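SAMPLE LOG
Freezer: B-3
Tube label: C17
Construct: single chain, 395 aa
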Amino acid sequence: MKDLTFINFLKLRVGYGVTGNSGFANNASRVTLGGGGRYLYPDGQYRETYGPTRNPNPNLRWETKRETNIGLDFTLFNNKLTGALDLYNRTTKDLLDTYTTPQPPYIQSTIYANVGQITSKGIELAFNYKAITGPDFRWNFDIAASTNKNTLDSYSNDIYKVKYKTFGGIGGAGDLGDAYTTYEGHKIGEFFGKKFAGFNDDGKWLFYDRDGNKVLNADINVSRNDLSQSDYQVLGNAVPKYYLSFTNNFQYKAFDLRVFMRGKFDYKILNTAALTYGNKTWSGNLLKDTFTKYAGINDTYMYSDYYLENGSHWKIDEITLGYNFRFANKAIRNLRVYFTGQNLITITKYSGSDPDFISDTGMGNTDANGRALGIDNRGAYPSTRSFLLGLNLNF
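STRUCTURE (predicted):
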């Protein structure tokens, strides 16, 4: 490739690896015993009883993640452009979960087993470009972008049969269940439920049935077992399809400026704050939008795509301006003064809290911080801007 003068460096990478996840409790494969309560025996004495509290599974094993990666590292155009492109295919097999068992022969109604499989495919790109390299003024920027697709390949086998799994407790007012219903072969993070069709003259909810007719909530077929008969629909996805970050570095003589921006795009957020506090049925504090944007509601709480909003956003996350003083004496070699602003601007159409605070990973189960994929749980502290004045000294 010596004749291709615009290429300074080019490297092809291919990798494959397997890792395990032992994320289950100790003794999960064994029979465990627990108290069954105190009972009166024929001799007139109360005695504690003990019995099995878990079905054994001697075949229980780790989840395994198998990943194939193809990458390309490059330096082009007289070393002005450097970067890397990666394509990956990640398969997680033997997913751990609890499955229903018949009684008898099993003592307990559930068993811990390895059954399911998830596939994740994606592309990642990162590069740096030296746009201007003058004697007084320099500008270079970094861009990182990625996209991925997560699919639940299977959740059943010859022994354990599961048609679907629900995730993402909605919380808030009303017993509204889970936001996600994930079927085999479907994408992770699909909001699944009723398609909003407006309100009738009395302010009651109307939804589209599977034939496209506007019907009242009582006429909706809520069955999940037969998709050909159910009126529930896929309403959107909570996993961002695209991620992007953009960092600019400028330098003019002794001045330097760094601007860092990032965003997530093409995904939905369930606004549970509006669902709960935007309905006049709520007995506590209400949103102002209750009497404007949501004034047409004269009905109970309801989960549908009416409360799903576009979560796409772009953040100006940090701007730092600095100045470097040079000294001729040996006591102080360099003095830099800088001013930094963080979390400055968020550009989004989402009307709830900061969309960046809402989880974009997982299946929909609540994590240790009480966050679940794509669900605004109303618990995040409002995002704050911060400003910092700093001084660096080199002796």
